[in-house]
Amino acid sequence: MQKAFKNVLKQLEKASSIADVDNEVIEILKVPDRIIQVKVPVRMDDGRLEIFKGYRVQHNNWSGPYKGGLRYFHLVNLDEVKALAFWMTIKCAVVDIPMGGGKGGIAVDPKKLSEDEILKLTRSFTRALSDNIGAKIDIPAPDVYTNPQIMECITDEYSKIKCREDLAVVTGKPMKKGGCHGRDRATAMGGYFVLEELMKKLKKNPSQVRIAIQGFGNAGGVMADLCFDKGYQVVAVSDSKGGIYSEKALDISKVKQYKEEEGTVVGFQKTKEITNEELLELNVDILILAALENQVTQSNASKVKAKYILELANGPTTPSADEILFSKGIEVIPDVLANAGGVVVSYFEWKQNLEKKHWEEDKVFKKLKKIMTRAFDKVYEIRSQKKTNLRTAAFVLAIERLQRKWRERTKSEEL
Ligand code: NAD
Predict the structure, then answer these.
(1) Is the pTM of this model over 0.90?
(2) Which of 105, 210, 225, 318 is in Cβ range 3.0-4.6 Å of 76 for a Cys bridge?
(3) pLDDT at 36 over 80
(4) How far apart are the CA of 306 and the centre of ligand 1, in A?
């Protein structure tokens, strides 16, 4: 994600020009609290010692401990991690949970490592970060190419170092190791609750709504399932190998089965093969972005025909594309709102771990729905008041909330 942090600053500046927030709060938010860069030595299976670069950026903790995923990906770099940590601060403030923003990762291609090497890499990274993470300090979670097993491994290594079991040091753990029901579907579920609210406002019936979804993984695949189950017309989906389109709605359960067998959605019966670029330009009501960053840009935004874009991915629309979409009357339901379900359920997991409780899935989704609905309504209200787009409205809501936290904290202190 090139220049991602520059995009973040543009988004922040745009919101600060219409928010009721002191300039000094904005200046503080422009810089992360702490940047941690570590070496991650690993003894590889062939006996060589390889040294990887690991990062953790702690952006802001006015609302609570830093919170955010760990990414294992060869393109991980400091600029990207800083941007993602910042978005976590905004996201947690939009949904109003007592968590701050953090993010981390290792520049590594996990597909080139054995399972054993990935676990050794994770233990080595945990040792390097052990003084900087903790249930009340900074709580990592899974992100791109990290999973519940890796979270279990961090908990285990961290507990060994601290000589006590500390389940709440990470979230996204397997169920038998302190995980939370529904965490695997939380991001899509949160996005779905937001979509439902939008439909209520538009007084639309799901059967009248045509949807295209880019990305068919954890976020996009589950979202496709939810939309299909509720009667939306999902007419196109895609993965890294390409996309499929059908004039008539796709049977998502069959597409899923096909993907499991073939490793891609491409080639599914009676569909037209399309590229990922073509999917973005389809004549649909809603375009759901659930794959990568920087998909809708200055060069293709004017070709988007959907009336609404819902961002399950982080940073899929660039600031210049946002301007073009706004001028065309296309509304973007931004990542900091639409994909916040993941961090909300992570917060539930942390809370259950600390209180030694266990919630059933019904309770998790009921609470998630309440939080997502409240956040959506508030963002929508600010958008109408300020006559801006939903992303800027979400940022305004977040930075005004953050200012209140900052004032409470600094009431009795001098900076
Ligand atoms: P994933 O790896 O499960 O799925 C990613 C999907 O995108 C796969 O289907 C993959 O084939 C597809 N893809 C990859 N390259 C593509 C390309 N060039 N064009 C089209 N599709 C492509 O990942 P995920 O967890 O679903 O995450 C997807 C996005 O959602 C990421 O931006 C992630 O940061 C964001 N997100 C995920 C969560 C979560 O809880 N999973 C939470 C918040 C945000």
Answers:
(1) yes
(2) 105
(3) yes
(4) 20
